[in-house]
Inverse folding.
């Protein structure tokens, strides 16, 4: 009987996978698998993908695929909640994150975690709790993550002069910089406690791109403005390839919050 | 050779003096007949007068023409200007072919590709017919390459030329081979020049004035019938290690390949008198080099690439009552790209397109109608229409240019030119000619698309402006000519009002790309700029053995706010006296330039003092059996004057005393 079920399921899987190959491309084709496990209690298999094979500090996109652990069918309607946690032995803290919508996009639940430090200082884990709307069950799992420090960091933190608050700013775009006009996007978070890093929209952001080795800027850049959930969107123009430094200034209603931070982009 | 010298002498002495008062000598457009080439207009007489010095570069010779000046950035590759118009304001053509330099810094004007011994004839068209071979406001320099003539008897002629000059410790070697018979006429020539850094008048060596180059040309003519022949031309030019002391970089290697094939027809007894159909292509590569410069903040590579292909169809029709109609149809496409890569240690290379890949398509039609009203009146009408289209050709060029925020990166313009000239013989020896013209010129690729092109003169980076309007000019010219028994005097005055004059203006808020540059400029159209001036030429055979040429020029140019226009040559005079007796010749040359105080400091100019120079030249011509030998020697800048000209960038001193000796052997 057991054999029969496996055989039937196996045949069905073969069948469906054939069908899928014919009809739609694998949504994870350009992604790397980060972790896989079962959300116990939700009868759901959770597979986490990322764009890069290694995870670096900064704004990191996670693509979560859910499968019914009985039928192995994809689950496209679920509520997922992330809980990133850094355990440094003597202390623990969380990190900013963005939960996915309840509807999957192309069978994947896109979400983000902004790692504010590398795994050098401790151990990163991400708790993933799933409310599977197709079977109505809830459960969770925790996956370990190794976060490295990239050559050019994409996240900076500062203590604001106007309110003493600790802010984190991470570059989200351009992911593939080019000579020409590039979409520029930052995400801004404020640390309100060790476990709480809500998105912030209270600061006004300006920036000047510069080539440090040449000492020149570029024309016609557009300062990022807040578009929601702490995301600030603008345009950055690169006149040539090489190392560019984005010098950022933050103000709050005219009061200077910080003028010391920069993020380097190299291409 | 003796015959050649005596031919020139004869022509200088007699031909022009007794020549028919042809109305064409200020308006010459199409010359297919080689016989009429020598000693036709004052300009051509001057060219041939100074061409007799075998060591001259083309720039040396052309610089003697009062209409022409040269903007100098090094010992080599000077940029010609006609009545202070240069670059995109004039056409510099080789046998009618368009050639676009591959250097964003204008190091390679087309004049560098013609060695004087490869120059058959120069057509300098200004004013009313300056635009007939291409829409332009400043005029046209067309250099006609030398070619062999057909001969009834099979003939092989060889010349070898070798010379040495002291100022730059330079030497050159040339070879010309002419082979011809009734059906075939083949000319092969080559020149090699090698020059070290020259010494200025104070004895100091001017660094980065060295150059090395070779130039080679092949011309093959095949006669198909009594009135038609096919012609194939190939010209190659390679230069190495060419110094440009007034620029931050030199040239490591530059190469030009210029080829054409043409079908030529002439039959002056027919209504369809002459015609040419030519198809041509040329390609130029240019690599700038800073590896030999001291204190370079960052090494960079700056390669440039240009290729042009096109056709020219010209014909001359003889209409009723000796009316002549010259018609021309031509089209060309020019592809340009240039880039810069800078290398900072430990960083990825910085790559940028300085000329984003672009293509210019030009097609035009022109007509010039010469109407001999009667023996004393002549009217000439000319008109030309040109269609220009510019576009970027690569995705990376479009993406980079998008930074500047123009609604479109392509340009299309229809340019219109027209002119009238009326000539009147007032007396057997005296003629007056008046012309008015309207002409337009298209902005250049640098003016439209240039991306942080560094200008050493004003220390600014320049970026293009895709909204530039074409420049236009209303030009009036009045010319009088006296032609007596021994003397010809031509005086020409002009008034030229240029609208939408293209001028570099500071772009506030832009940061300069070049390390050390003061800022960024872009081009803008100035409403009105006025150029006025005159040229006077005297050519005289004082005695049968004594020839005098003298040319004087003056230009005044101002913007609408009455401030001076940059890079205007001061008043200049060049006078030469040549004594020619039997096989000997001695020539004394006097060159004087006034000071120039009318300057545009925004363009990086400063005041320049005047100078006076004396050159002395001698020649001896003799035969050993059937071999002709010509020895020439002389001293240029005899008194070792330390000076620079107003148009010399960076106030780099010119060469001091230069002694030369050269030998030409022909058999």
């Amino acid at each position: 009987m057991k054999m029969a079920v496996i055989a039937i399921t196996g045949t069905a899987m073969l069948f469906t996978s054939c069908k899928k190959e014919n009809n739609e491309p694998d949504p994870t084709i350009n992604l790397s698998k980060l972790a896989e496990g079962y959300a116990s209690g939700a009868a759901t298999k959770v597979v986490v993908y990322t764009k890069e094979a290694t995870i670096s500090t900064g704004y990191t996109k996670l693509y979560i695929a859910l499968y019914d652990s009985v039928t192995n069918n994809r689950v496209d309607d679920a509520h997922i909640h992330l809980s990133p946690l850094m355990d440094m032995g003597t202390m623990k803290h969380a990190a900013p994150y963005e939960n996915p919508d309840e509807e999957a996009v192309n069978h994947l639940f896109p979400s983000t975690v902004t790692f504010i430090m590398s795994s050098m200082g401790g151990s990163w884990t991400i708790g993933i709790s799933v409310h599977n709307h197709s079977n109505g069950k809830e459960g969770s799992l925790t996956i370990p993550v190794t976060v490295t420090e990239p050559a050019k960091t994409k996240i900076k933190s500062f203590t604001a002069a106007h309110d003493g608050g600790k802010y984190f700013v991470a570059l989200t775009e351009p992911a593939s910089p080019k000579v020409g006009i590039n979409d520029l996007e930052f995400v801004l978070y404020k640390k309100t406690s060790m476990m709480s890093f809500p998105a912030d929209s209270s600061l006004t952001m300006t920036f000047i791109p510069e080539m440090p080795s040449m000492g020149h800027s570029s024309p016609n850049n557009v300062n990022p403005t807040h578009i929601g959930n702490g995301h600030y969107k603008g345009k950055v123009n690169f006149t040539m390839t090489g190392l560019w430094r984005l010098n950022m200034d933050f103000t709050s209603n005219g009061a200077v919050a910080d003028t010391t931070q920069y993020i380097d982009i190299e291409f | 050779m003796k015959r050649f010298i005596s031919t020139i002498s004869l022509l200088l002495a007699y031909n022009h003096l007794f020549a028919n008062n042809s109305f064409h000598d200020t308006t010459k457009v199409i010359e297919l007949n080689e016989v009429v080439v020598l000693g036709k207009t004052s300009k051509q007489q001057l060219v041939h007068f100074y061409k007799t010095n075998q060591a001259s570069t083309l720039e040396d010779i052309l610089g003697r023409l009062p209409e022409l000046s040269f903007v100098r950035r090094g010992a080599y590759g000077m940029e010609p200007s006609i009545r202070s118009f240069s670059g995109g304001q004039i056409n510099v053509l080789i046998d009618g072919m368009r050639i676009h330099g591959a250097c964003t810094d204008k190091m390679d004007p087309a004049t560098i590709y013609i060695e004087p011994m490869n120059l058959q004839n120069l057509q300098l068209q200004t004013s009313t017919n300056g635009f007939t071979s291409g829409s332009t406001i400043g005029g046209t320099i067309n250099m006609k390459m030398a070619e062999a003539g057909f001969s009834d008897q099979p003939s092989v002629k060889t010349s070898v030329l070798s010379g040495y000059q002291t100022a730059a410790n330079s030497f050159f070697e040339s070879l010309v081979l002419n082979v011809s018979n009734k059906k075939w006429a083949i000319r092969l020539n080559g020149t090699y020049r090698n020059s070290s850094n020259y010494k200025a008048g104070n004895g100091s060596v001017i660094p980065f004035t060295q150059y090395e180059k070779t130039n080679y040309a092949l011309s093959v003519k095949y006669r198909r019938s009594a009135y038609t022949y096919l012609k194939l031309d190939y010209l190659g030019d390679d230069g190495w290690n060419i110094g440009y002391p007034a620029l931050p970089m030199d040239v490591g290697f530059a190469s030009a390949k210029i080829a054409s094939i043409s079908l030529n027809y002439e039959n002056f007894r027919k209504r369809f008198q002459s015609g040419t159909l030519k198809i041509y292509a040329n390609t130029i590569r240019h690599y700038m080099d800073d590896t030999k410069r001291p204190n370079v903040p960052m090494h960079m590579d700056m390669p440039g690439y240009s290729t042009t292909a096109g056709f020219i169809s010209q014909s001359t029709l003889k209409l009723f009552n000796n009316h002549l109609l010259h018609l021309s149809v031509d089209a060309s496409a020019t592809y340009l790209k240039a880039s810069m890569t800078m290398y900072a240690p430990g960083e990825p290379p910085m790559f940028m397109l300085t000329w984003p890949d672009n293509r210019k398509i030009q097609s035009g039609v022109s007509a010039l109608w010469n109407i001999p009203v009667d023996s004393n009146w002549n009217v000439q009408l000319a008109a030309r229409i040109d269609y220009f289209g510019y576009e970027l050709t690569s995705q990376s060029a479009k993406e980079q240019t998008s930074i500047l925020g123009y609604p479109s990166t392509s340009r299309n313009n229809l340019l219109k030119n027209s002119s009238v000239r009326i000539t009147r013989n007032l007396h057997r020896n005296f003629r007056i000619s008046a012309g008015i013209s309207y002409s337009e010129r298209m902005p250049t690729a640098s003016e439209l698309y240039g991306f942080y092109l560094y200008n050493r003169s004003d220390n600014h980076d320049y970026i293009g402006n895709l909204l530039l309007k074409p420049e236009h000019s209303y030009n009036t010219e009045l010319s009088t000519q006296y032609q007596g028994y021994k003397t010809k005097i031509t005086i020409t005055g002009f008034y030229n009002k240029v609208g939408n004059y293209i001028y570099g203006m500071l772009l506030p808020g832009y940061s300069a790309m070049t390390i050390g540059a003061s800022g960024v400029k872009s081009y803008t159209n100035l409403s009105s700029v006025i150029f006025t001036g005159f040229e006077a030429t005297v050519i005289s055979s004082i005695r049968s053995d004594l020839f005098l040429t003298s040319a004087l020029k003056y230009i005044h140019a101002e913007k609408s706010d009455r401030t001076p226009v940059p890079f205007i040559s001061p008043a200049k005079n060049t006078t030469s006296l040549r004594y020619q007796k039997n096989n000997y010749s001695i020539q004394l040359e006097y060159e004087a330039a006034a000071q120039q105080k009318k300057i545009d400091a925004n363009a990086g100019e400063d005041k320049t003092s005047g100078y006076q120079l004396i050159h002395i030249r001698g020649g001896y011509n003799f035969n050993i059996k059937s071999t002709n030998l010509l020895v020439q020697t002389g001293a240029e800048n005899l008194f070792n004057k330390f000076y620079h000209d107003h148009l010399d960038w960076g106030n780099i001193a010119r060469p001091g005393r230069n002694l030369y000796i050269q030998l030409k052997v022909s058999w």
User: Anything to note?
Assistant: The interface with chain B takes residues 178-181, 211, 213-220, 237-243, 266-267 of chain A (CB under 8 Å).
